[in-house]
Amino acid sequence: MSAVKQTYGEKVLIQFEDFANHNAFDLLAKYSTTHLVFNDDIQGTASVVLAGLVAALRVVGGTLADHTFLFLGAGEAGTGIAELIALEMSKQTNMPMEETRKKIWLVDSKGLIVTSRKESLQHFKKPWAHAHELMKTLLDAVNDIKPTMLIGTSGVGRTFTKEVVEAMASFNVKPIILSLSNPTSQSECTAEEAYTCSQGRVIFASGSPFTPVEYEGKTFVPGQANNAYIFPGFGLGLIMSGAIRSHDEMLLAASEALATQVTQENFDKGLIYPPFKNTRKISAEIAAKVAAKAYELGESFF
Predict the structure, then answer these.
(1) In terms of Cα–Cα distance, which of 249, 246, 238 is closest to 283?
(2) How many angstroms separate the first and last alpha carbons of the chain?
(3) Mind naming one GO cellular-component term on file for this protein (predicted)?
């Protein structure tokens, strides 16, 4: 890291990817104050997912703080997304992060993350340990917590079972389900399962590509929450602004910029992301917003 900066200067952008989660968080924390760094697995994933959720609010109504979030998976992707959602809620409501985190629940391989497990949790999971009885299964957690948004980052296929999706549909008019693990074999559920088990009411996006689904005469086009929406524009914004550090506020700016690119025509098809064919325009919009935020935060060398 020292050699890269010595060779290319203070403004060189270093992107981390595919580090094991126990290393990824530590590396990001270690170098974020001394280098211009970006972890795509943690920050890119979080930013693109937040954008989809912000866009989905235009369909279901309310603000982020009006919703309850449940994650299956508490690794670098899940906790990174959760933290950015909590940060955006804090920004919108002026509530402290300790309060906004309470709207967000995580389930890992041992069950719901609760305070009784705190001593044995990895450090990045501890902020998500809330006071609640331990629940071993996702279905039990869904039925008890009654989330409006269910997000899968588990890397384990078919964990959003028929019963889980039906439960989400039983207490939400339009349940929001993001099945983000990839490849397709590891997706928590398929698009067809999500639409069928919710009687076509789900707002769905996935990490893997799925073909359109026809249900009772209507064709739904599942969106893909792909980091490629974020990192080209995010990186361009950092570079063209001359930023020397990256901040979470820049990720929020990227999310908000992406969410505004979703049109009513996209929503009518069931999409909460704009078409990939618009990637260059989307990236330019994101870059402009990220660069503006860098100037605002005083992180630019120009």
Answers:
(1) 238
(2) 23
(3) chloroplast
Q: Does 268 count as an annotated binding residue?
A: no
Task: Show the tokens assigned to 60.
Answer: 């279901």
Looking up tokens 């998500």 gives 128
pLDDT tens digits for range 102-143: 999 999 999 999 999 999 999 899 999 999 999 999 999 999
The reply to whether 18 sits in an annotated binding site is yes
pLDDT band at 301 (very low <50, low <70, confident <90, very high): low
Asked if 78 contacts 69 with a C-beta cutoff of 8 angstroms, the reply is: no
Secondary structure (3-state) at 14: strand
Listed in sequence order, the DSSP H helices in the chain are 2-8, 21-31, 45-60, 76-93, 97-100, 138-145, 162-171, 191-197, 231-241, 248-259, 264-268, 279-297
The answer to whether residues 213 and 192 touch, using CB atoms and an 8 Å cutoff, is yes
Count Cβ atoms below 10 Å from residue 264 Cβ, excluding itself.
8
- Integer Cα distance of 174 and 216 in angstroms: 17
Q: Is cis: bond before 232, omega within 30 of 0?
A: no
User: What span, in angstroms and rounded, lies between the C-alpha atoms of 245 and 13?
Assistant: 9
